[in-house]
Amino acid sequence: MRKTKFFAVFALLFLLLLCACNSSEVTKINLAEVTRSLFYAPQYVALEKGFFEDEGLEVELQTTWGGDTTMTALLSDGADIALVGSETSIYVYAQDSKDYAINFAQLTQTDGTFLVAKDPDPNFTWENVAGSKFLGQRIGGMPQMVGEYVLKQHGINPHTDLELTQNIDFANIPGAFATGEYEYVQLFEPTASVFEKEGQGHIVASFGEESGTVPYTVFMAKQSFLNEDPETITKFTRAIYKAQQWVADNSAEEIAKVIEPYFEDTDLEILTSSIERYKNQDSFATDPILEEAEWSNLKAIMDEAGELPADVPYEDLVNTEFAEDVISN
């Protein structure tokens, strides 16, 4: 009798210990971001506020510097999840990839670049850009495609009506503009605000405001990962949604303080004003759902730039089930 009772107690303790161990299990996620940008503020908020940890996820962030290298990391299993422009998923799909990337959670919903003029232009109109020396972004990337799209909407053909330069590496564009004879450039924050503060340039327009909503930067994973580990994708998406809501509910100054460790070389004042500019134009998505209308706008922009390799249906490369689940629950 005593042996039976002893083994019963022992079994109960073992089960409790097993449950405790299971409840504290941590899933490691390798996350690749296409560049380091305060445009991705909600992602850094999720990391700093512990939203991933709350979901039992240990996220290791790596900056892979460029759409091509980011997708290579994802497709070769160097990363589990990638934060990159959704146009890259279309490029991969068009190459008949067997295990292509699926967009499952949207982070930003507008273009993040601003038109910066070398000289002050308080009476700026888009017609002023015609005939100018314009420093654009790399061919095939979202900034360049959106830039061309907006210019064409204002009757300017970037390839015939401008002295357009597109062969400067992303990291070297600010320096090239500062030292060169270019009259206009496309810049992300906080670089645009830094240039303005230092008198090296003047923000005259926003490409994000001009181009409408678009799935500019999206979290994606291979189809096989979504199929094999949907629970992890759900947890990851839930953490991002919490961060998106936190960003929507808090001031630019509070957001800047949280993400400051990721931008040690940028003044808190510049971080704050840059985030405020993005918040004012609704650049940060408030939920992770990528809408079909946004997907259609993306394809229209790519098509206008001559960079759409295939008319990929929304349902082929977008999965909103995880986002809808975390929102509804």
UniProtKB/TrEMBL annotation:
GO cellular component terms listed in the entry, alphabetical order:
periplasmic space
Q: What range does the record give for the signal peptide?
A: 1-23
Q: Coiled coil where?
A: none
What Pfam families does this protein's entry cite? NMT1_2
Cellular compartments annotated: Periplasm
Query: Where would you say this protein principally sits, based on its record?
Result: periplasm
Report keywords, A-Z.
Signal
Entry similarity comment: Belongs to the bacterial solute-binding protein SsuA/TauA family.
Kindly provide the name given to this protein in its UniProt entry: ABC transporter substrate-binding protein
Organism lineage reads as: Bacteria, Bacillati, Bacillota, Bacilli, Bacillales
